[in-house]
Amino acid sequence: EAGVTQSPTHLIKTRGQQATLRCSPISGHTSVYWYQQALGLGLQFLLWYDEGEERNRGNFPPRFSGRQFPNYSSELNVNALELEDSALYLCASSWGLAGLLPLNEQFFGPGTRLTVL
Amino acid sequence: DAKTTQPNSMESNEEEPVHLPCNHSTISGTDYIHWYRQLPSQGPEYVIHGLTSNVNNRMASLAIAEDRKSSTLILHRATLRDAAVYYCILRAAPWETSGSRLTFGEGTQLTVNP
């Protein structure tokens, strides 16, 4: 069974540009989560999507946004990039709210390394 | 989110048991205790979770104190592949919106010596 996939693996942008990161969940999973892992800040929750809707948001500015498509894949967009946005962005998926086990484990992808110059 | 406290680092020898402690004195009655680990250059990986009773799976065991203010992750026979950062996470009940998120702390860096 294929795991969570993310693209691209690496992304280099300059300050002020926009970045788009993509995530494909495990087949059957309807929930997608985004996390940021920056040096010195640890893993921080960004966004949660389920059934196409944003369900919960972490403590990040509005320039961090995303969406979930009908096939449950997801996109994370970061506008007006700042140097401190350089980080590993991790996507995870799980059975969603409609699943039998909503508290089941989250499966993580390998991440996208975003570097802002 | 309720907080957890873990030692920054621990060391073990290969094929010996490892007990990773976690304190969570402000845990609420509906918080689940989750453990994840992150191997070098990889995303986190689920290990185990529990609510009140001790739990076992193929990877590890989770021992939960009777008052639920602490828990211990037990790796029965450490291997070199178990070297990772281990995170103890309190997760709200599924009907709570915040129950979706995993709030990672600093975790415990486990070193396994050959």
Keywords:
heterodimer, A: about 120 residues, mainly beta, 7-stranded mixed sheet, 4-stranded antiparallel sheet, 11 strands, globular, B: about 110 residues, 5-stranded mixed sheet, 9 strands, about 0% helix, about 45% strand
What does this structure look like?
The complex is a heterodimer of chains A (117) and B (114). Chain A has 117 residues and is an all-beta fold. Chain A contains no helices and 11 strands. In chain A, strands 2, 4, 5, 6, 9, 10 and 11 form a 7-stranded mixed β-sheet that branches. In chain A, strands 1-3-8-7 form a 4-stranded antiparallel β-sheet, with no helix packed on it. The N and C termini of chain A lie far apart (37 Å). The model of chain A has no long low-confidence stretch (mean pLDDT 92). With 114 residues, chain B is an all-beta fold. Chain B is 0% helix and 44% strand. Chain B contains no helices and 9 strands. Chain B has strands at 9-13, 18-23, 32-38, 45-50, 55-56, 61-64, 70-75, 84-91, 108-113. In chain B, the strands form 2 sheets. Chain B has a 5-stranded mixed β-sheet with strand order 1-9-8-3-4, with no helix packed on it. In chain B, strand 5 (55-56) and strand 6 (61-64) form a beta hairpin. The N and C termini of chain B lie far apart (38 Å).
Helix and strand topology:
The complex is a heterodimer of chains A (117) and B (114).
Chain A: E1 5-7, E2 10-13, E3 19-24, E4 31-38, E5 42-50, E6 53-57, E7 64-68, E8 74-78, E9 87-94, E10 107-108, E11 112-116
Parallel strand pairs in A: 2-11
Antiparallel strand pairs in A: 1-3, 3-8, 4-5, 4-9, 5-6, 7-8, 9-10, 9-11
Chain B: E1 9-13, E2 18-23, E3 32-38, E4 45-50, E5 55-56, E6 61-64, E7 70-75, E8 84-91, E9 108-113
Parallel strand pairs in B: 1-9
Antiparallel strand pairs in B: 2-7, 3-4, 3-8, 5-6, 6-7, 8-9
Mean pLDDT of chain B: 92
> Biggest β-sheet of chain A: count, sense, barrel?
7 strands, mixed
Strand order of the largest sheet of chain B: 1-9-8-3-4
Fraction of residues in β-strands of chain B: 35-45%
By secondary-structure content and strand pairing, the structural class of chain A works out as: mainly beta
Secondary-structure element order of chain A, N to C: EEEEEEEEEEE
Largest interface: A-B, 25 and 23 residues
Helix content of chain A: under 10%
Q: Tell me, what's the shape of chain B?
A: globular
Q: Roughly how many Å apart are the termini of chain B?
A: 38 Å
Q: Can you tell me the residue ranges of chain B where pLDDT is under 50 for at least 5 consecutive residues?
A: none
Rg of chain A, Å, rounded: 14 Å
The average pLDDT value of chain A, as a whole number, equals 92
